[in-house]
Automatic annotation (TrEMBL):
Cross-referenced Pfam families: MptE-like
Name of the protein this chain belongs to: 6-hydroxymethylpterin diphosphokinase MptE-like domain-containing protein
Gene Ontology MF terms in the entry: 2-amino-4-hydroxy-6-hydroxymethyldihydropteridine diphosphokinase activity; ATP binding
Taxonomic source organism: marine metagenome
Positions of the 6-hydroxymethylpterin diphosphokinase MptE-like domain: 16-56
Amino acid sequence: IHLVKNFKNCVGTTQTKPAGRVHNFGGFTDGDRCVFLANHFKAKKIILLGMDFGTRIGRYSKSKVENRTTKIAKLRRGKKLLEWLAKKSGSDLYSTSKIKGFTKINLQKIDTIISKN
């Protein structure tokens, strides 16, 4: 943590109690915490790509059998938080997964969304 003091133009986040320059903007999993962070800084558009809140765990996630139930519970919690945030956010919200309050998109629409004002 001593190295963090030297970082410039960097925002630290945590899921727990904030300390110093490390902030808790909300969220639970890495993906939904990023959405809360972007929302805090009033991003005009927030696009989630590949965040799957279903029961399939990706190969880059912790996928041991004993972690599966916990991982799926965390994903469900993250999705609920995003659905809650969608009701309050002023950002245009997009996702390749189905999330209430987000516009569901496919990859082909990304360029159009990004280029819109």
